[in-house]
């Protein structure tokens, strides 16, 4: 999945000036965005008041959607640069194709990790046949300047490391947590974990005090540091924490996102991350002319055209507002 908003506007991200250096409880509401003709996602990042959490710069939560009699996810070929995409499912399957030749079905709690590097294109679709329900999250990780021109590649990891405590199973998606490490390639200090809590669970999860964190609610009723977080919303937690209290009123699913605050200032427009307007303009031209981003073979449909650039200059700025 990607940013299919035809009214795309630039998001100006990065820089440490607005990182909250102490623990906070800032509840972020989603913006509802149409994905194609029939699907809708809840966009948590970039948000009006918060653009990044560590290197995490884009978070969409979708479903659970009943797609038994629907085509399901149908995202035509589109380009990326300067970022990694993370595909994470709780229900359903997604078939990934990309311009490096990758072809992979991603299933619940398996990591689909695509590093765009300098340029890649991909498509995502529900297989035929497919499961009745589709529920998951699509996330992006910004690449630092020294790695953003790396060769594009795709990784698929099943059987990810797990951390357990009474009533809690944490599946490590990216980075490190409580001594465990994900096999997914990372380029900045980061963590992403899927948290499954049984009803009545009351635990404390160890954290890295130099990281900033947020928790996305996927399902159920849970309190994060005493704050009720409903499905489709996200609680920003700031920095300076050594542990995180979690309490479940029902069986619940959460995603923990964190990382060292991202120092560089970025421009994010449509599906590209750059450092200047000239980079974004060149990326758009290359995509529309059919160069640089390669070809996705096997998808039954035309690639997505890029939206028009805004009439104002794009300049990288701070992390929030």
UniProtKB/TrEMBL annotation:
Residues 42-141 form the Pirin N-terminal domain. Residues 193-292 form the Pirin C-terminal domain. One of its GO terms (molecular function) is metal ion binding. InterPro entries: Pirin (IPR012093), Pirin_C_dom (IPR008778), Pirin_N_dom (IPR003829), RmlC-like_jellyroll (IPR014710), RmlC_Cupin_sf (IPR011051). Its cofactor is Fe cation. Fe cation binds at residues 78, 80, 122, 124. Keywords: Iron, Metal-binding. Residues 298-321 are annotated as: Disordered. SUPFAM superfamilies: RmlC-like cupins. Binds 1 Fe cation per subunit. Pfam families: Pirin, Pirin_C. It comes from the Bacteria. Signal peptide: none annotated. Belongs to the pirin family. PANTHER family: PIRIN (PTHR13903:SF8), PIRIN-RELATED (PTHR13903). This is Pirin domain-containing protein domain-containing protein. It comes from Streptomyces sviceus (strain ATCC 29083 / DSM 924 / JCM 4929 / NBRC 13980 / NCIMB 11184 / NRRL 5439 / UC 5370).
């Amino acid at each position: 999945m990607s940013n299919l908003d035809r009214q795309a506007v630039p998001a100006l991200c990065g820089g440490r000036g607005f990182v909250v250096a102490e623990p906070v409880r800032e509840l972020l509401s989603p913006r509802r965005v149409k994905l194609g003709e029939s699907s809708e996602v809840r966009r948590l990042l970039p948000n009006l008041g918060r653009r990044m959490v560590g290197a995490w710069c884009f978070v969409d939560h979708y479903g659970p959607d009943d797609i038994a009699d629907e085509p399901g996810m149908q995202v035509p070929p589109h380009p990326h640069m300067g970022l990694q995409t993370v595909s994470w499912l709780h229900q359903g399957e997604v078939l990934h194709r990309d311009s490096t030749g990758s072809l992979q079905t991603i299933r619940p709690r398996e990591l689909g990790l695509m590093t765009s590097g300098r340029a890649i294109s991909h498509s995502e679709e529900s297989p035929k046949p497919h499961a009745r329900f589709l529920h998951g999250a699509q996330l992006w990780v910004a690449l630092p300047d020294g790695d953003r021109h790396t060769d594009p590649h795709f990784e698929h990891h099943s059987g990810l490391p797990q951390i357990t405590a009474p009533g809690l199973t944490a599946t490590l998606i990216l980075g490190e947590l409580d001594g465990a490490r994900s096999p997914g390639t990372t380029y900045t200090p980061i963590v992403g974990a899927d948290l499954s809590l049984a009803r009545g669970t009351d635990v404390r999860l160890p954290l890295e005090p130099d990281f900033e964190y947020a928790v996305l609610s996927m399902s159920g009723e849970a309190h994060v540091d005493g704050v009720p977080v409903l499905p489709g919303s996200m609680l920003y937690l700031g920095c300076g924490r050594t542990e995180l209290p979690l309490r479940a009123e029902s069986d619940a699913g959460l995603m923990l996102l964190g990382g060292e605050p991202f120092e560089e200032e970025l421009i994010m427009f449509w599906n590209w991350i750059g450092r200047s307007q000239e980079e974004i303009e060149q990326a758009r031209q290359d995509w529309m002319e059919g160069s640089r981003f390669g070809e996705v073979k096997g998808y039954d449909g035309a690639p997505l055209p890029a939206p028009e650039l805004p009439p104002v200059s794009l300049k990288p700025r701070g992390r929030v507002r």
